[in-house]
Design brief:
Layout (H helix, E strand, L loop, with lengths): L2 E6 L6 H12 L3 E3 L6 H8 L6 H17 L4 E5 L5 H10 L3 E8 L2 H10 L10 H7 L7 E4 L4 H13 L2
Parallel strand pairs: 1-3, 1-4, 2-3, 4-5
Helix pairs in contact: 1-7, 3-4
Pathway: Carbohydrate acid metabolism
EC number: 2.7.1.12
Catalytic activity: D-gluconate + ATP = 6-phospho-D-gluconate + ADP + H(+)
Length: about 160
């Protein structure tokens, strides 16, 4: 079975950094969900307006096409995957078994991380809406997103190996 390892969470949780580190440690290809957002979606989020499922349709489709086209057995995707709409879309369209890994980070730390970022379209003002929108898949693997990257990668690999 081909797997899509979805490193998920709200803005500031460290999805991209941890997904890239997991990819580097394992040799599995890395995908960044933000690269599949349209300019209109990025502009909408930058203005402080949350996306709707309609806004997300093309984004999910494009990520799934890219994932399905990859030959690797496992692919790592950094993706918020906040809602069941996105999660179910990834499951149905990616051609892969989705393994969701939530980076669990306290709200205060998330706000600090987002505020410290330069040149990113996601404002801290959308954090509350992201936390409210977060729906966890029933089989999600939760990890402490405040741990060191090395410890997180090791924990994720161990949890994935368990099934």
């Amino acid at each position: 079975m081909r797997d899509l390892i979805v490193i998920m969470g709200v803005a500031g949780s460290g999805k991209s950094s941890i997904a890239e580190a997991l990819s580097a440690a394992t040799g599995w290809p890395f995908m960044e969900a933000d690269e599949y957002h349209s300019a209109a979606n990025k502009q909408k989020m930058a203005s402080g307006t949350p996306l709707t499922d309609t806004d997300r349709e093309d984004w999910v489709r494009d990520m799934c096409r890219a994932s399905a086209d990859m030959r690797a057995e496992r692919v790592v995707l950094a993706c918020s995957a906040l809602t069941s709409f996105v999660q179910n879309g990834l499951k149905a369209q990616s051609g892969r078994r989705c393994r969701f890994v939530l980076l669990d980070v306290p709200k205060e730390e998330l706000a600090r991380r987002i505020s410290a970022r330069a040149d990113h379209f996601m404002p801290v003002s959308l954090l509350d809406s992201q936390l409210e929108a977060l729906q966890l898949p029933e089989d999600v693997l939760r990890v402490d997103g405040t741990a060191s990257p090395e410890d997180l990668v090791a924990a994720i690999q161990e949890r994935l190996a368990q099934g």
